[in-house]
Amino acid sequence: MMTKARYERPLIKKLESNMPNKFGMRTEFEPVTQIDGVSVASLMADYGSPVFVLSEQKIRSKYKAARQAFETRYPRVQFAWSYKTNYLSAVCNVFHQEGSWAEVVSGFEYDKAIRHGVDGANIIFNGPDKTEADLRKAITNNSLIHIDHLDELYMIQEIARETKQKPKVAIRVNMDTGIYPMWDRFGFNYENGQAWDALNKIMFSGLLDLVGLHTHIGTFMLSPNAYAIAASKLANLAQRVQQKYGHEVKYIDMGGGFSSRNTLKGAYLPGTDTNPSIDDFAEAITSALMNSDYRPKTPPLLILETGRALIDEAGYLLGSVIANKRLSDGRRATVLDVGVNLLFTSFWYDHKITPAQEFTSYTEDTVLYGPLCMNIDVVRENISLPLLNKGDKIVIHHVGAYNMTQWMQFITLRPNVVMIDMDGKPHLIRKNESIDSIENLEEIPPHLSHFEL
Amino acid sequence: MITDKTRLMFPQFGQSVLNSYTQVFFAKNKWMALMLVAVSLIDLNAGLSGMLAVVIANTAAYLIGLNREQIINGFYGFNPLLVGLGYGISFQPGLSFFIILIFISLLTLFASILLAGLLSKYGLPYLSLPFLVGFWILTLSSRSINQLELSEGGIYFLNELFNLGGFTLLQIHSWFEQLQWPDIFKLYFRSLGAIFFQPHLFVGIVIAASLLIWSRLALLLSFTGFVGAYLFYLVVGASLNDLTYSYIGFNYILTAIAIGGFFVIPSAYAFLWVIISIPLLAFLQIAAGSILAPLQLGVLSLPFNLVVISFLFVFRFRERYFDKPALVYIQQFHPEKNLYSSLINNRRLAHLERIPVKLPFWGFWKVTQAFDGEHTHKDAWRFAWDFEFVDESGKAYKNEGYQISDYFCYGKPVLSPASGYVMEVINEVDDNAIGDMNLRQNWGNSIVISHGEGLFSQLSHLQKGSILVHKGQYVEQGTQLANCGNSGRSPYPHLHFQFQTSSVVGAHTLSYPFAAYLTRNDDLRFHSSDQPKLNDLVSNQLVDDTLNKALHFIPGQTLKFELTDEEQPEIIEWEVKTDIFNQSFLHCRQTNSKAWFGSNSDLFYFIRFEGNKSSLLYDVFLGAYQLVTGSNPGLTIQEQITLSEFPNTGLRILQDFLSPFYRFLNIRYEATQLKIKQGIGDSRIAFNTQVYFEVNGKTLSSRKYAITFEAGEIVRFEIEKDNKHQILNRV
Hints:
The complex is a heterodimer of chains A (453) and B (731). By secondary structure, chain A is α/β, with parallel strands linked by helices. Helices cover 29% and strands 22% of the residues of chain A. Chain A folds into 2 domains: 34-53 and 314-433, Lyase, Ornithine Decarboxylase, Chain A, domain 1, CATH 2.40.37; 56-312, Alanine racemase (TIM Barrel). Chain A contains 13 helices and 20 strands. In chain A, the strands form 3 sheets. In chain A, strands 3, 13, 14, 15, 16, 17, 18, 19 and 20 form a 9-stranded mixed beta sheet that branches. In chain A, strands 4-5-6-7-8-10-11-12 form an 8-stranded parallel barrel, surrounded by 7 helices. In chain A, strand 16 (363-369) and strand 17 form a beta hairpin. In chain A, helix 5 crosses helix 6 and helix 8 (224-245) packs parallel to helix 10 (278-290). Chain A is globular and about 80 Å long. Chain B is α+β, with helices and mostly antiparallel strands and 731 residues long. Chain B has 4 domains: 1-151, Ammonium transporter AmtB like domains (Ammonium transporter fold), CATH 1.10.3430; 193-204 and 217-326, no CATH class; 365-539, Glucose Permease (Domain IIA) (Distorted Sandwich), CATH 2.70.70.10; 545-730, no CATH class. Helices cover 38% and strands 21% of the residues of chain B. In chain B, the strands form 3 sheets. Chain B has a 12-stranded antiparallel beta sheet. In chain B, helix 5 (78-90) packs antiparallel against helix 6 (95-120) and helix 5 (78-90) packs parallel to helix 7 (129-142). Classes of the chains: A alpha/beta (453), B alpha+beta (731). The A-B interface holds A 61, 64-65, 68, 71-76, 119, 121-122, 142, 144, 168, 209, 211-212, 250-251, 283, 286, 290, 298, 301 and B 361-363, 389, 391-392, 408-409, 411-413, 478, 480, 542-543, 545, 677-682.
């Protein structure tokens, strides 16, 4: 059967006569027409546009690769799923099925983990804002509380004294690992002695069970060596506690922050080529621990709270072209139905974006705008894409982390989220919002209930 | 103080006397002992004389300060007993009789010690040689002692019977004598009686009954030995007179029990050796008879002693590994018990005599070449393994696998398999490109570690420059030695591992097992003292803190449980104790039951049980018979329990008779670890265990148990048997 040839608008391109560079003429628009065997077109037909798609198979294989990277290098490893990265219940449960514990940073996330059926003893409670009620609940459930500041420490001691329970605690330690910016707003500092001071307070009080040490040195880290420094500093603290109190710290929690395959804004080379792999981080952390002086009878459990590196690549955002236009300076602009309201991470990354249908090899530089009536709504400031028409479909890659937790209900409503299972069958895991989901929460005072124009 | 001591001493003294009687047949059994004592007293004079000899010898041994355990076992008493019996039969009692008895007992005791000293260094028993020494010296010297009067007991046996038991006993005796049994049976029983110097049918039958009570196999063996001798005499045409007149046939009986069931694990091979012993005994007996005849000394048990000792010596000289028949190493004074426990424990407790070696890596690795492998594990180097790491899909590399760094195992830590000294280090061979091989330095970068006792391990093809240890360094099990690499004869990264007999790189390999590991092929399996096979996915098991702590019993510790039955809750207490052999056991004071247990880093297991089988401790013995100390939810282990624990006595007796040839009974133990709650220091782990008593593969009865561990303790033990549900809660 004959199909009608696609219309592509005419393109005038300046002939570049300078030296060919080593990156050649390649563009990144190789079309992605299916995800795990399900066609992008059918996904958008069934679930609308835009739509988030998660690949269960990618999540599991990423997780297994990460576990493999650590478990072949260190005998006792435990992952804890970082809820803030993506706390959709289906996603969390995939990780819990794989054996991950839960790492939460608020009372809300804590309750969500409990609702998912995670045993209290397998929840790590991080974060600077834990209310007294949160703490009481966590202590009763035998959860692992990572203390962020002295005020929290005092509160926990107060509760312990009152309820005669012995909470299981760790302290969060911040430190100089040679990277900039140094994260020193969470936990206790290593270099100035705050951390050691807090450990002494815990050990002297006798009210708390110091089970671990925690650090989280930064986010989207590009230097594995920083983790090696952090691991040896934590091991050093553990060893000092053992020496002074004869008390064995049972685990060392290295937090997360491993980079995914995304490309940071301003990076010269694509992240897929330059970002360290999970093996690089594993090698740095485990060899630092193995070479440390902390040698209890059984090696301490190594806990990892990595989120982004495990889920980013499993997430896709599918959208459509609303319009093409030309800006005042002559640049091409494309308006999508996907904007920063859904793609919060476009503030951080130059997301990889590919068309979902075949094109000729001609491309044009364009600005990608979202649908919002706001100037900040820019998805990509400059991207070379084929000649898109209204209604064409695009796939935004590596969006699994943070977008489904930091998205905004702003101007538009949040779309469907779909997960493709191991057999290639899509499941709706979060329904799109309707006007009711917004208005049901609202209340109108009687005197504002009607008006005439 | 004194009362305490005597309270302990009297039962022990009683035991030592009774055991001295049963030791004649290599047994330790109270009922058998009482029957033997009774039978010995039929000739009152001889019986008392024998008992007195035992008492004198054991008391002397105690006062001299000989090993207490040996005295209690009756090792020093049975030879004086035999001398005393023989002496009592031969001579009339009187003052000089008793004086001589005292000293001849002492003489026999000393002969026992002397012979023990001479023979034990060759691992040989002294059997009844001291009796021969004592009795011959007595016989020879008594001729010059005028005060001793020959006894008429042997001659007027009926009179004595009448004196002892009146007309009734006489009637019993004559009834037995008139029995129309085939000669061979009569002779057999008389020969049995002759062991106690009373070659009478009645005595023989009582002794045979006592053998039956103690051990079915011993009875079967004794009969086999005797019938064999009878047939041999008939076939070769030797004078049956020897057997019929002097009842010397007991040599065949005792030899059969010794060779077929006591020093050797009963088996068809053991029976074969019993048959072999018969002609030798006959030659020795005839030969010894002609040598000793001029001296007017009896041959007595000389052939038995010589044959058994020479057989054992021959067995110990075996160099080729062929343990048929196998010697008994842990003597339980019971042929069936020795057999049943060796059937299971040779495999189950094999790790006890081995150096505990673990796999030299973390995580599950795949065996890509095993023993007699297709590539390089051949001839003198056939006992070796190659390990590679593969992912879930079975691939050993990522990307295309053109770079050595694509291989998952490349650069991964390689650990010391056991503690030991680093003997050799090669650290300067370059890693090959994929597909290339360095045939000149074929072992590549290697480490050899000495684990002691002639056991060395070699790890090869390591990454260049990754070796963290130096020659002469002592390393603990699990220390990182180097990284997995691709040096030497290695076309793609893998770890070569072998046990070997010397410290030279590339020495001849040795077949040696790993202490414990898990395989994850189709399902998760636990292996103790085993060797990985080709394509196995293997890993060390990670020991769980809670299980490890809960199953680490400290001597002196008391385990207290509350039994919640329908009636009044009851407190049950078990104490952890150790005996002089450094064996630990749980002791239930109320029922005086003991359950011996052992453990290593991967396993906890019970070894044996002694005492009241209706006690709750017996259920703990069965229910926690073997537990793996790692956290492996879903893991099921199967084990067998020694058939001595089979509850149906009738079936077990039948099985005892057939045991060396055919076993239709089985006790199967199965333990499954349930899904666990795991946390930091407060894991909760549960096991469901079951014991099946099977006849011909069909379950006759079973018992179910559920054991729960939490926070480093056993918190709950549930028992389900005979439609009864009992729960023990830790208090």
